[in-house]
Every structure is written in structure tokens, then in C-alpha cells.
Design goal:
It contains six helices and eight strands, in the order ββαααβββαβαββα. The chain is α+β, with helices and mostly antiparallel strands and 198 residues long. Strands 1-2-3-4-5-6-8-7 form an eight-stranded mixed beta sheet, sandwiched between helices. 27% of the residues are buried. Bound molecules: coenzyme A. Coenzyme A binds next to strand 5, helix 4 and helix 5. Coenzyme A (COA) binds next to strand 5, helix 4 and helix 5.
Length: 198
């Protein structure tokens, strides 16, 4: 299966550096994920041991840290997976999809860093790892995250009615956004300021 280690690292964008997580990053990423404004909308982690297992010690890594001016400000989760396929053609569907997620320090929200990093994540997934479809999911009420999806050009493909259980808010609608490799290559790359409708 294709993994993040098949891409070239570190990556640099106009303001950011991205690279796979190491054990030395764990405290910073954990702190950000524990911020109430972040923890509100993520899948959540049970405790630090669970966090380390799921985000730091994954082999190969699936978490990429985002650095701005020497400081870790967020992380992306890039998970290459298989597409659904009928049995006779299932080999063709191995490792051709990816799920993309993100968390950023509330101290840097509202500056376009997430959009800039996610755009680079799409570049890695499509242009270096060769996946054919990238999807992202969120609670429908998570409007900042949906705006990131729309700014990077992902398409709202569906809303599941009351399909996602939030620990405090109960059953909420969930949204799926996605982008195909052909669409990524056809479109001009978005700017962080490009229009988002939610
Ligand atoms: C989702 C999340 C990363 C979005 O953060 P964000 O700061 O809104 O997104 P960006 O970094 O791309 O910044 C974009 C915003 O900065 C503004 N901005 C200000 N200066 C800017 C600049 N120089 N360049 C670009 N955008 C700028 C944009 O207008 C935009 O504001 P808007 O969304 O109100 O229109 C953040 O809310 C978060 O970490 N949430 C918790 C975790 C989470 O929900 N993860 C996803 C689970 S599905």
C-alpha cells in the first residue's frame, strides 16, 4: 500500500513547512488537540496513550505536522485507503483513495494557514502518491472546517441526516466532501481567499 513515506518531505509552502510527525512533536500536537475549540469537532481521543497509538506511533505515519516560523501550529491526517469495489476488480481499488483531516491551534485560526496546508496535502496525495479521490468528513455544523473544504475546491457530495453522534450535542448531520484527481489537475489552484459558501 502507498504510504506517506513515498512522498518527498519536508514540504514548504509560502508560509509553512509540513513533514511527517515524530515522537518529539507529540506534546505540541496533543496540546492543540486538547484545546476545547478543537476537541469540540474532532473524533476525540480517549487519553494520551490512545492519542500516541493513533497519531504518533502509526507505522507508516498518517499524521503530518504543520510548522510556521519554527512553531508547530497544527496537523493534517492523510490516510491512504482502498476504494469500494466489486470483488473481481478489487485489486484496482487498493490504495487509490485518501481521507484528509486537520486540526489547527486556535491561536492561529483565521489566517489562512489551514487552507494553505490542506492545499499542500492534496498536492501530496494526488501528485506524489497518485490517489484518484480524496474525501473529508465533518459534522455539518462545523462551518470553519466546511469552508476549508470549499476553499480548496472539494465538492459537497452529501449530507447524512442525523448520522453522526456528538458526545454533547447528540445525533447531528454529517457532511462528506470529495475531489477527484482529474478535477484537481484541471482546476487552477485555489487561493486561501477564494470563495466559500458556508
Ligand atoms: C477547521 C479549522 C482548521 C479552520 O481554521 P480557519 O482558521 O478557519 O481556516 P484557515 O486557516 O484556512 O483560515 C481561513 C480564514 O482566515 C481568513 N484569513 C485572514 N487572513 C488571511 C490570509 N492572510 N490568508 C488567507 N485567509 C485569511 C479567511 O478569510 C478565512 O476566514 P473565514 O473562514 O471566516 O472566511 C479550525 O477551525 C480548526 O482547527 N477547528 C478544530 C478542528 C476541526 O474542526 N477539524 C476538522 C474536523 S472535520
Amino acid at each position: 500500500m502507498t504510504s506517506l513515506l513515498d512522498a518527498s518531505w519536508p514540504r514548504t509552502t509560502e508560509r509553512l513547512t509540513l513533514r511527517p510527525i515524530t515522537a518529539a512533536d507529540a506534546d505540541d500536537v496533543w496540546r492543540i488537540r486538547c484545546e476545547p475549540a478543537v476537541d469540540e469537532w474532532t473524533g476525540g481521543v480517549l487519553d494520551r496513550i490512545d492519542f500516541d497509538l493513533r497519531f504518533v506511533e502509526t507505522d507508516p505515519p498518517e499524521t503530518v505536522v504543520v510548522i510556521h516560523e519554527g512553531r508547530l501550529i497544527g496537523d493534517l491526517w492523510l490516510c491512504v485507503t482502498n476504494a469500494w469495489a466489486q470483488h473481481p476488480v478489487r485489486d484496482e481499488a487498493q490504495g487509490v483513495e485518501a481521507v484528509l483531516g486537520w486540526c489547527f491551534d486556535p491561536a492561529v485560526h483565521g489566517r489562512g494557514f489551514a487552507t494553505e496546508a490542506v492545499t499542500e496535502g492534496l498536492h501530496v496525495l494526488f501528485d506524489e502518491l497518485g490517489v484518484r479521490r480524496v474525501k473529508a468528513e465533518a459534522f455539518a455544523d462545523n462551518l470553519p472546517s466546511r469552508r476549508v473544504m470549499e476553499r480548496v475546491g472539494m465538492r459537497h457530495e452529501g449530507t447524512g441526516v442525523a448520522d453522526s453522534l456528538h458526545r454533547d450535542r447528540g445525533w447531528l448531520d454529517g457532511v462528506t466532501y470529495a475531489l477527484l484527481a482529474d478535477e484537481w489537475r484541471d482546476r487552477s489552484h485555489p487561493s486561501p481567499d477564494s470563495h466559500a459558501s458556508v
